[in-house]
Amino acid sequence: MRQILFALLSMLSWAILAPATLAHAVLLATTPADGAMLAMPPAAVRLTFNEAVRPLVVRHVAPDGTETDLTDSIAGATELVIPLDGIGRGTHVVSWRVVSEDGHPIPGSLLFSIGEMTGAAAVPAEGDTAVRSAIWLARAAMAIALVVAVGGAAFGAMAPVPQDARRPLIGAAAVALLAAPAYLGLHGLDALGAGFAALATPAPWIAAAGTSFGPSVAMAMAAALLAVAGLWARSAAVLALVLLGVSYAASGHAGAAWPQALTRPLVAVHLIALTLWIGALIPLALSLHTDTTGLRRFSAAIPFAVILLAGSGIALATVQLGGDVAHWRAPYARILAAKLVLLAVVLALAASNRWRLTAPVLAGDAQAVRRMRRGIALELLCAVAILGLTAGWRFTPPPRALAQAAPAAASAFAHLHSDAVMANLIATPGRAGPIAMHIEIGDGDMNPLSVIGATLLLSLPERGIEGLERSASPLDGVEGVWRIPDLVLPFPGTWTVALDIRLSRFSKTTLSGTLTLK
């Protein structure tokens, strides 16, 4: 028992002490802005996320439809810098699939034009519906099979598992051992945006193993194997139960939510409580005619599991829903609502079995046994539906992430000019706060102009801000394009801007205008 407790503490410590993150990752800003019309080609595209991400696939689609894989040339983590070399006039698309701490792929595309809009570039498809359906099926099958196999083995800690229950429990473990690697491979397909044929190649398996789902699936498979051993060895059943909880805490929206010191243990506790309850139902139902020891002990223990299940579920729902009520109508919240309805039905059935039928069954009432078995069958049916529903969360970012991903204001634009020099200022996003300022400097005809320096001065007199000065840096290899990547303008309103341009060592010019931020 001491070894089991040590393993439990070690695994929960790993869940608590793992690095914190804000997952699910969301895109905050792009440079250039989506749909932008540019006078000159950018040296790079920049994608700014709310947390570190890892690129899986990044492609550039030229106006003539030519695709170039840029995945290996990307730098950065929170801000991905995607270099673009030698691109010409027309409409371009940069598409990406990245992955963050929760293991879910995040696709997106950015469209911009240089000089003219051509419409030849096509945005790549964001995923195969058949692949996503297969992912749901594999994930649901894995979850259902694991709960049945591990929970059934854990029932053996309360009472002997009936012989006629061992075969379905071993069968459930076998299903889990098949569904888990299938889910991992399909997750890799989704991560890369590939079709089923790619399963015959190493790429999707490597991509999936590199996400948080890799170790999670490995632990789930180990839990399934331990569940089989747990039918004969109680310690193996307990380890399987703990390992299953930690495997779910290691990946997914809920386990990756902040603060992880709270959410990861909550996910583990939620899964362990659910598994103890639902997984025990098959051996419980099959033991009613021969041995009521299991029923007596199950009835005494299950209220504690329900309390843990409800408490952890309420806490996780509070974290996932967030405070923005406007996003509570999202698909994630609808799945949660359906789950709660089904859970209420399960609780009603369980309460009926616990308080109306347990005493007659213990007294040997055959009719009560038949009624309890029917009630248990309905509980199992509802539990399968609940696990199938929650498998759909794989495709639905929680409301807290949607609130972070609320569309940023479009880029703010200012055109400054004199007779001989012009400049375009593009602030992304066009709202108060952190801003990336893109500066294009040209001659009187807006042809790129080579200069030796550019400094931006900003004022917002009604807020008491005067002469905020920031130096711009040139973009390598692109004439006339300068950038201030870390500008912070704290207030909305119409800012007065002045751009000091050093034309040479001995001459400069100043262009003035206004820039409105939302």
UniProtKB/TrEMBL annotation:
Q: Which GO cellular component terms, listed alphabetically, does the Swiss-Prot or TrEMBL entry include?
A: periplasmic space; plasma membrane
State whether keyword Transmembrane helix applies: yes
Location comes to:
Cell membrane
| Chief localisation class | membrane
Keywords linked to the UniProt accession: Cell membrane, Copper, Membrane, Metal-binding, Signal, Transmembrane, Transmembrane helix
User: Where is the chain membrane-spanning?
Assistant: 136-157, 169-186, 206-229, 236-255, 267-288, 300-323, 335-355, 376-395
Signal peptide position in this chain? 1-25
Q: How does it sit in the membrane?
A: Multi-pass membrane protein
| One Pfam family, short name | CopD
Q: What is this protein called?
A: Copper transport protein
- The organism named in the record is Gemmobacter megaterium
Give the organism's phylogenetic lineage.
Bacteria, Pseudomonadati, Pseudomonadota, Alphaproteobacteria, Rhodobacterales
